[in-house]
Design a protein that fits this description.
Number of domains: 1
CATH architecture: Alpha-Beta Complex
Order of helices and strands: EHHHHEEEE
Distance between the termini: 6 Å
Number of strands: 5
Number of helices: 4
Bound molecules: coenzyme A
Largest sheet: 3 strands, antiparallel
Structural class: alpha+beta
Radius of gyration: 13 Å
Helix content: 40-55%
CATH superfamily: 4'-phosphopantetheinyl transferase domain
CATH topology: Ribosomal Protein L22, Chain A
Shape: globular
Strand order of the largest sheet: 1-5-4
Length: 110
Amino acid sequence: MEIQGIGIDIVDIERIEKMIKRYGNRFLKRIFTEREIDYAIKNKNSAEHFAGRFAAKEAVIKASREALPMKEIEILNRENGEPFVEKMENILISISHEKKYAVAVAIVRS
Ligand SMILES: CC(C)(COP(=O)(O)OP(=O)(O)OC[C@H]1O[C@@H](n2cnc3c(N)ncnc32)[C@H](O)[C@@H]1OP(=O)(O)O)[C@@H](O)C(=O)NCCC(=O)NCCS
């Protein structure tokens, strides 16, 4: 395996909360897919999960060096909770979030 790119991003969860409060579905649907929205809203701390996905999308853009539209990068979870990027098997991601911040890293491998 050869590493071809790496990306990292940190997101202030309150910023995402404010965007959701202000723009609601208009914001969510511009950035996230239906499956991502379903996943996040299942949880009571949904803003943390949205922020984690947002960070992961930014990390993927950095790692791949491609200005892909956010919604084209779909972050899903396996049954054990592990996140992955749908249809981008050569990209590995990891997400973490706490009350204030969400972070994610992405690695592009050959
Ligand atoms: C994976 C694990 C270490 C997450 O730790 P945590 O400190 O609670 O959570 P963090 O805030 O650091 O990270 C949360 C993110 O971890 C990721 N994650 C969850 N499960 C994961 C796993 N098995 N492997 C890799 N990443 C995982 C997810 O992306 C999650 O964010 P999301 O739900 O918004 O997508 C923890 O859940 C664990 O030990 N799981 C293994 C055992 C297990 O499956 N237990 C089930 C619950 S009892």
